Amino acid sequence: MVPDDSVSMTKEKILAEIDVAMGGHVAEKLIIGDSKITSGCGSDLQGATSMACRAVRYFGMFGESAGYVSSDPDQTSEKYNAMVDKEVKSILDVSLNYYKPYRNHLIE
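The structure assignment produced for this chain is given below.
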């Protein structure tokens, strides 16, 4: 079966959406500084985390490192769930590092 483009998202598109969501967090750091981060970007971080988790846990987009399993956390071992969490964190870290060049231009 060929996926319908109007419903399916590519790995590239999901990673781009995660980058956009992480941008809200980075924008706060740039504008108001690390020590004054607010809860305002919480929904962006939740969305980015959710997308990364679904890509790893359900869509097999990171199967080379996380395995090609599509299952809820209550159906997999603690070890597998920890590995999924580690992969999700890695995806979010890569996305956050995408913005590193901009952090050199912090507004004082």
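Interim note for the steering committee: The chain is about 60% helix and 0% strand. The mean pLDDT is 84.
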